[in-house]
Structure formats: C-alpha cells, structure tokens
Amino acid sequence: MLIDMLRDARYALRHLAKAPGFTFVAILTLALGMGATTAIFSVVNGVLLRPLPYAEPDRLVRVHEIVPRFGRFAVAPATFMDWRRQSETLEHVAAYMTDSDTFSGPEGPERVPGAQVSADLFAVLGVQPALGRTFRGEEDMPGRDDVIVLSHGMWQRWFGGDPGILGRSVTMSGSPVTILGVMPADFYFPSRTTEFWTPLGINPANATRGGHFLGVVARTRAGVTPEQAHVELKTISERLALEYPANSANESAEVVPLHEQIVGRIRPALVTLLAAVIVVVLIACANVANLLLVRASVREREMAIRTAIGAGRWRLVRQMLGESLILAVLGGGLGLLLAWLAIPVIRTLGAGEIPRVDDVVIDGRVLGVVALITVVTGLIFGMAPAWQASRASIGGVLKEGGRGSSSSAGRVVRGGLLVAEVALSIVLLVGAALLLRSFARLTGVDPGFDADRVLTFQVALPRATYPEEHQSIAFYDALLSRLEALPGVTAAGVTQTLPIRGSYVLSFTVQGRPPAKPGEGQSANYRAISPGYFRALGIPLLGGRMLDDRDKAGAPMVAVVDQRFAERHFPGEDPLGQGIDIGNGTDGFYEIVGVVGDVHHSGLDADPAPTMYVPFRQDAFSGMSVVLRSDGDPAGLAGAARQVVRDLDRGLPAYSVAPLSEIVSDSVAQRRFSMLLLGVFAGIALFLASVGLYGVVAYTVSLRTQEIGVRMAIGAQARDVLRMILGGGMKLALIGVAIGTGAALALSQLVASMLYGVTPFDAPSYVATALTLLAVAAIASYVPARRAMRIDPLAALRQE
pLDDT at position 185, please? Predict the structure, then answer.
C-alpha cells in the first residue's frame, strides 16, 4: 500500500510539473487562503484560546462595583476591604492601581510604568518571584512606599541582570526605595508594560467609600464558580449600600472571569475575522476545484485509457485525490510562510489595542490546525474532479479523440462552484464596505478640538521635592512661560487629563438647589486647566469668558462648563453666574463664568460627557499633560520641550511625547485593525472570484471553438459572439451576486457591534459592493470573450 502511495505521489508530481501554469495558480490560490487563515487563527489562539500566564487561571476573576449612572466602575477602598473580610467564596482578594514613576538611571531620569498593589496580589495570581521576595503584610501600609519589586525586563535593562541587586536602594521620584525581588520573565500584570510594583498601602482607619479608583482581582476557592462568587459579592455590596447610604446607595457588584475581562472587548472582532478567513478558504477551495475540474476534463482520455487497461475506479480516485493533497500541502506550506511574515505586521497594527497581541505566535496548536485544514481542504477541492474522472465513459471519450470533453453535469458543477465563489465574495465585500463606511463616519466626527499641529507630553512632579500646591503651581507657570517663548509655539496649556484619554468624574451640587437623595447625586467630567488650554486646542467660547490669569489661588473660585453641561443641568436657564460645589462639598461654590464647546473626552465613538473646567491654580495636580500648538510640524518641538523641562528640573523627564493627532488616531486603532484585515480578505476573495470566473469562461470558449466557428461562418458577427460569451459569464456573476447579497443581509448582524453611524443594512454599501463585483466579473469575462471574437471560422471548422 505504501509503495502504491509513493508511486502515486511521484506520478502526481510529474503531472503537476508538466503544467507549471496550472500548478502555480492553484498553489498561489491555496496559499492566499491558507495564509490568511493561519495568521488569523494564530491571533485567535494567542488572544482568546491560550490560558492566562498565571496559576490555575480559570479561578481568577475581576470584581467591579456597579455604580448608579455609570454601571461597571472602579472600586472604593473601603468596599474592597469589606469584600476581602466578608467573602467566603474568594480565597484571595487583591487591589491595584496603575501608576508610573520617575527613576534616575545612568542616562538621566526616565518615567517608567508600574503599579501600586496590595501585598496579596502575587498570591492571587499564584506567581512566585524569580529572585528575592514580594511584599509582606506589614509593608502594605501607608508610608511604606520605600520598597519595590522589579519586572524581569527592568532588572535586565537597568541593572544588567545583576543577581546581587536585592537590598540595593534606587532613587524613585527623588526618594530611595529598596529592591525586594524580581519577577519571572513571563510575568506581567496589570499590563505587559508594567515594570515595577510598590505597596498600595490602604489605611483601614480612613479608607473612603466615595472615591472609586481601585482595580480588584481575586481567586475563587476550589470548586466555586464565578457565578457563585458574583451572587455573594452582589449580596455583600447591596448590604453595604443599605448600611452606608450616603456613599454607597444603590451600588452593587459584578464578578467577571479575568480572561473574559481582558479579551471580551476584542472577541467579536476576532470571531468575525476568523469567519471571514474561513470564507476565503472556501473560495480558494472552490477556485482550485474548478481548475481541477477543467484539468480533469482535459485528462478524460488519459483516464479512459487507464480504465481500459485495468485501472479500477478507486485507483483513479486515489490518483486524483493524491494530486489534490499534494497541491494542498504545497499551498499550505507557502501559506504558513505568508502567515509567518504577516504576524509581525498584525502585532504592529494591534499594538496597544489588541490585548495579549504579543502572545500571538505560530505554536504547536496552530501547526496542528493548519495540518488539519490542509488535509480537509485537499479532500474538499479534490472530490469533484476525482468523481468526474472516475465516471468517464471509455467508449465515448475515446471517440472524442485527443480533445477534452465537457458533460452537462460537469458544466453545472463548475458553474455552481463559480456562483458560490461570487456569493461568498459578496458577503466579505459587504462586511468590508460596512466597516469602511463606519470608519469614515467615525474619523469624520468633530472631536470638539483641533488636533492638528498640537504636541502633547506629560510631566509628573514628585511629592518629595514639590510637597506644597504652590510649588506645583509655580513650576507649571514657569514651564508654560518658557514653552510659549519657544520659536514656532503659538499657544500652550496644561490639563490633568488629555481629551480622548477618558473621563475624570466628580460629583457636584448646584447652589440654591436642595441636596440630592443618596445615590442620586449629580456628577460630571472634570478638568483642571491653565488659561491657554482652550486656545491651544481651539475649543470655542460660546458664552461668557475664558479662564485667565486673574483666576489664581486665593481669588474667587470660577469654572467654565461645556454646552452639554449647560443644557443638561440648566435647561432653559442662563448658566453664567450660577454656583456649583465640586467634589466633597467642602471647597465652596465655583461661579460659572463661561460656556465652551463640547469635547469628546472618552473617544470619538462616545457622546461628549458634560464637563466642568476649573483653573489649575485653584486645584493643583502634581501630574499634568502639556499641549503645545505649533505653526508647523509639532514633532519638531519635542526636543526643545524636553530641554525646557530639563532646564527647570534636571530630575524630571518629559514623557509620553506625541502629536495629539496621533493620540486621536490611536483611539480608533481597534476599528482600523478590523477594517483593514477584513478589507484585505475581501480583496483576496474578489481576486480569487475574478480568477475563477476568467478560468470558467476561458475554458468554455475553448470547448465551444467549433460552435463559434460555425456561427461565424453562417453570418454571426463578432459582437454576437461577444454578447454570447460575455452574457454567459455575467449570468453566473449575477446569480452569485443575488445569492451573496441575500446571505450578507442575513449575516450582517455579525458586524453590527463593530459599526458606528451605519446600520447593518446600509444600502450604499450593498449597491457599491454589487457594482464592484459585477464590474470585475465583466472584465474577467471580457478577456476570453474578446479572444473568441478573433476565432478564424475556417481554422475552427478544421479542428477534429
């Protein structure tokens, strides 16, 4: 049996080598489909299927507070401590906050991302340090911010992997901290960029219930499901809401598996892309099957002779399937190479937006799936030609002489495969068109500010050297003064949070109105800014005045609100002159002195949230973002801006330096990722469908050469031949378009969650897609039809 199989393989390879054009097209077609499938399955495997790199990851959950008006929210410190004390379904409960700090290295100060964590975080994740130890309980207390655990990457880059690093002090934000341990190379939490961990240090005596800023992760006890933990935590939180109505009224809790928390947002897009590449593979299979059917019809005489001399039907089927499997293996191998080349590009496209994108590799599971798909596709596209070859009539074929023949059944199968290709292509093209129109709508949204020619960067003042608010104010005043003096700078400002980067929400009350009931208070987005902020971002003034230099510490407190705030909280009233008490109600009332335009603070796809702006001199933050408007390329200001910060304080770095337009662009990176990949797959599908249509029409012309010659001999004109051939191809294309459009309408809800400003039944997308495919089909049919127009009737009639 093995010898027969080897003999069949050698025979198949010889035949494939004798038809290099056919072999090349078939392998390339399969490689495109297999490469796309391998690349996307690698992403699905790395992001969705691979377990998290922690001990018993199925027992890890993320816990959220459910807050009225906001839904899923960060956790208040006191609530976290109550959960940890009262829960019986959770084995460990830990809290954390993302952070960054300034380290003094050999090349100067550098801002490094890290996290503040409770001491039991590492027990929750079930990870031991590679070197040294993590925090003890007594170190997770207020004031114990003098110890640190390093990531493996930071240990290597900053300290050269020195094993004697334990116990050494390093300078962090101007203060010494002692290195306790180094984590393993494959450990990261809460993100892959985290480089260090310091104690969170919550004081149980004054833990707040009003401020929500903690992330909470927990490990369930053995045998406890996330659903059981959810019920318990929800019950505890609702009991706390009754016990502390002033701060926790109507609040609840939600428990989510940690894996789902990390990848749930991207799951629909990846599943859609995986479905798309499966469609591409099916189109490739249909295309190669059509090519093999054409080849099988040409080889009918060969198969008839082999049957006449004793070859059985199974022997012929095995021979044809062997050729199909060899094509599949060669196509799969080339596809694997294409996928290997594509994965770095996919990682780049998804960086920062696709969770776990660095885990995307071609591993054993991917190779196993590729091998399975290779065999299955080889059998799929090989069955039809094998069946056709095995059913050849010996007498009929031998009477045909050397020419190939084409049965009615064969024509129906080839036409059906082509219709299927066109229909599947329409489905992908409609999906890509919907995403393209959605992306165009999203990027066309007015963000409420002018991001062009604006440079942004961040500065964080260490409390050790800037302990007082007036020191922070003086630093930023000096910084803005020097930045405004730089050549090319037309405006400069600071804010504690950049637009697009999210909301910073505070509660407030309106002067003269009765206090709200517990859990029903008002809140809005909050920004502390400098007077030049609005001018630097081009945010328009709609009424009243802007903030200016008179709004300083000790002066009457003032605020500017946006139009959304004014319309929601002062409907039918003039907001100017109204008083609002922001935050905890102890600062007094801010007088509203101006109204500005709305800004998209939480992304272009999120409605502008009501926002209040106050002078940073009346509410100083140690960390601020700087915005510089330039009269040219903003990137050209980066070096000068860094130098200004360095001149003011040699220990401070300017970090996260980027044009604001780049930040806006990055905010839609996930949608761009899905649109680009689906667009590529749709393009591949369109190419394969056009090749398939060309092949079928060209083969039809070759079979009908004598018929065409007879028609022309008895008076048919070239345009009649053109109409006949072109009409045949377009008929198949129209049937495919009709079927595909119906399928696209039925499946359009799969991309509904990925759309913005466009419905799944967007008529222009369907019309444009159908016209595009019909135009391509017309071109693919016209080329062989034009060849048919040039047939010499006498030469055609002499063919026998």
Answer: 92
